[in-house]
What we know:
By secondary structure, the chain is of the alpha/beta class. The protein has helices at residues 3-8, 50-63, 74-82, 99-108, 124-130, 153-163, 175-178, 213-226, 232-242, 245-264, 283-289, 307-313, 343-349, 365-384, and strands at residues 67-71, 90-94, 115-119, 135-141, 166-170, 188-192, 206-210, 269-273, 296-301, 318-319, 329-331, 355-359.
Amino acid sequence: MNIESRLAQIGSQNDPVTGAVSYPIYQATAFRHPKLGQSTGFDYARTKSPTRSVLEAAAADLEGGDAGFACSSGMAALQTIFALFGQGDHLIVSLDLYGGTYRLLEKIMSRFGVTASYVDTGDLDALEAHYTPATKAVLIETPTNPLMMITDLEKVSAWAKRKGLLTIVDNTLMTPFLQRPIELGADIVIHSATKYLGGHNDVLAGLIVTKGKELSEQMAFLHNSIGAVLGPQDSWLLMRGMKTLALRMERHQYNSVRLAEWLLNHPAVEDVYHPALPHHPGHDVQKRQASGHTGIFSFRMKDARTVEPILRHLKLIAFAESLGGVESLLTYPAVQTHADIPEEIRRKVGVDDRLLRFSVGIEHIDDLIADLGNAIDAALREIEGE
């Protein structure tokens, strides 16, 4: 079946006893054993839970992997993956990185002897230059957040395999509806499922999908041992959100492209970072490895003084963190999502005090343009009157 049908049917055929089209929420943490030495397949909810199992199977199917693991947040999913590594191991990581991932690597994993180099993973020469005998994996965001840097997943995965490295891809911004890294050679895919997969700003979750029997068994051991698993209520909410993913992503990307094109021609805007724009670095790679574009992008104002009044004058669009929900959110990365990254690193990659990140929702495009346009106009009037 096409992915649209598989999404809409998540869990709808998994309860043969009642025929429930919406898979039930099994709130139980313990399960009866028929007799000594026998199990229903469920023993304790941390290890395996019926509602979570349906979600995990759907995630693996959608990403083309062998096993799925649902975690209590995107960061919990990352921590579970990082538990594959230990003292002396080295990771190569995307340069324009989400601040929470940087914090986890530099403030926590470093205490366990894991080190990281931050590299433009779209540059094979840079990857080669930072490779060491201690390197164990490449962690890729593509597009990156917030500057939308693109990595050629097929080329980098092939390079990593030649070196004996794992390729881990954060697919949060694209979702399996638009991009499937495992089909391009990746070993592990991770999602902050709080974002587009959940889609309604109402559930905190993370997903891991693995390819290969041995790696899947390792991840199952870590998932159970660390225990940062997703509860049944949140598993159900996530499945409900994923059923409409195809419809939402089509509107998200349509709205985001229209807004990016509008901002590109605005006299108060200096740069727009959206992979759909023909001038964007990696535009052709993105067209080749994905079937569309995400609903998030960033833009840089010409004058830093406009940022605060723009955020203050928004009426429809919310000034808020996170992304991927049906409601549009505008974020100021330098003081929100990327505040944990040192200023000199932020500025080096372009996350400065003029950059705004736009998670475009599913509202009517004319209303979004009008709201942002009015906020920019009000900001310009304020600074002209200073």
